[in-house]
Amino acid sequence: MAAVAGAHGVAGEVRLKLFTASADNLKPHARFEAGGRLLTLKSVRPGPQGAVARFAEIGDRTAAEGLRGTLLTVPRESLPELPPGEYYWHDLLGLKVVSPAGDVLGEVVAVENFGASDLLEIARPDGARVLVPLIPAAVPVVAEPLVIDPEWLQ
User: Are residues 71 and 6 in the same domain?
Assistant: First the structure.
């Protein structure tokens, strides 16, 4: 749901890079898995380039800095159901990519968004990687497997 970008202040708050549309989407989750430990969310608010959060187990800047780069996750079953046509990025990882003829073209290894649209990072069988925009022209239907015209993978 987020990654710790670093400390915020001296009292143990952390800056978060959000993988969700809003800091408010973190509030329904009381606990987060963070690199093998559980953290209890005390508060979260919008912040510069993401959010600022406080966890019960983190009491000072040193402890907050120690979390830098840590992913904050929740169990998949605790996420709300999505309406048709929407998806969680996590659900796209590992999807096989095939041509309209059924030829294997690769696998989704990452999903990014740099502002314009979601981008699928496809690992090709030859080891090359290519970014494909997750738009209807390139990916008409999000399903298993993903059918993508090979010209988008050049």
Answer: yes
**Contacts of residue 34, Cβ cutoff 8 Å, sequence gap at least 6:** 4, 67, 70, 71, 72, 73
Quick one: tokens of 112? 């990014």
pTM: 0.66
Nearest Cα to 73, choosing from 18, 113, 34?
34
Distance CA 9, CA 12 (A): 7
In a domain, 121, yes or no: yes
pLDDT of residue 116 exceeding 80: no
81: in domain: no
Does residue 84 lie in a domain region?
Answer: no
Nearest to 79 by CA among 32, 121, 42: 32
pLDDT value of position 37: 92
8 membership: H or E segment, kind and range: strand 2-8
Q: How many alpha carbons lie under 13 Å from residue 146 in its C-beta half-sphere?
A: 30
Q: With contact defined as beta carbons under 8 Å apart, do 32 and 25 qualify?
A: no
Domain limit, last residue, from 75, 107, 125: 75
**Into how many domains does the chain fold?**
2
Q: Quick one: DSSP state of residue 114?
A: S
pLDDT reading at 1 higher than 90: no
